[in-house]
Structure formats: structure tokens, C-alpha cells
Amino acid sequence: MNAVLSGNPATGNACAGHATWVFCQPTTENTMRRDTDLLQAIQIYFDALYACDLSLFDQIFHPACSLFDADEGAITVDPIADYRQVIAKRVSPASRSQDREDEIILIDWLSPAAATVKVRLRIHANVFVDHLCFIKGIEGWRIVAKVWHLETVRTSSPAS
Length: 160
Hints:
Layout: H1 29-51, H2 54-60, E1 61-69, E2 76-79, H3 80-89, E3 102-111, E4 114-123, E5 126-137, E6 140-153
Parallel strand pairs: 1-6
Antiparallel strand pairs: 1-2, 3-4, 4-5, 5-6
């Protein structure tokens, strides 16, 4: 995972930075744990989509989550159950030994229990940019909303 967090983790304020984000030194053990827990949750998201693993999918998405998109000009909203069916039927990138291409672009802390995360990942030829709204409850970090955008469609694999 290409880690990202910029600014003051104690306050959650992000600062403008370079193309590569770095972690600022946490000021408390609780902040460090919060950051680590969220990064682990983001990795579960990446792993769930790469492997089309429904167990991981159910672990990371809140059952009331919805997905939003406006790529066709109109806003579309899909319940998580519909997206789960898509993942269940998809041939996984892992089964095709696709190179992993997933990265965290930004983490914006709304509170110690809420964050918006911007990620980029490739699923087959499609490169997506997702904004994931995470909330931490008793079950840990869960995605409660996802806004996604199809950034590009690749005709060939990138050079290694």
C-alpha cells in the first residue's frame, strides 16, 4: 500500500503537499492506532476487490452503504447488495494474476471516528478513482458510502 496522510494527524488537518504523501509523526498512541486501523481497513477494501472475496467485502462495507456515480451524466445510486452481486459474478484480477495497482491518494479526517479516503485502483482494464466514506463503529472501520469514477480504460498493461 502506498501510504498517504499529510498534515497534523492530531487534528486531522491536511496540508498541501507533493505527489507522494507522507505520514506526519503521530502525537499520541491513540492517533497512531487510529491511523493504523484505518490503513488496515483500506487494505481490506483493496484486497476484497482484487480477489472478489465476499467475506472481505462484507467485512469492510456497512450493510446500509450506497454507491454513487455520475459518469453517464445522471446520478446513479446503487445499494450495496447490488454491488455485492456484481463482485460475486466478476472474474477476479487475482485469478488472472493481474499486477496490483491500488494506491491511497488522500485521507481526510473528519473526526477520530470518521474519514474520507480517496483511492485509485485498477480492475482489469478499468482504472477507478473512489471516494470512500469510512465510519468507525463497534465493528471497526466500515465504508458507509462510495462515490466512484471510471478514470480510464487501458487497452494494454502498463510497462513493468
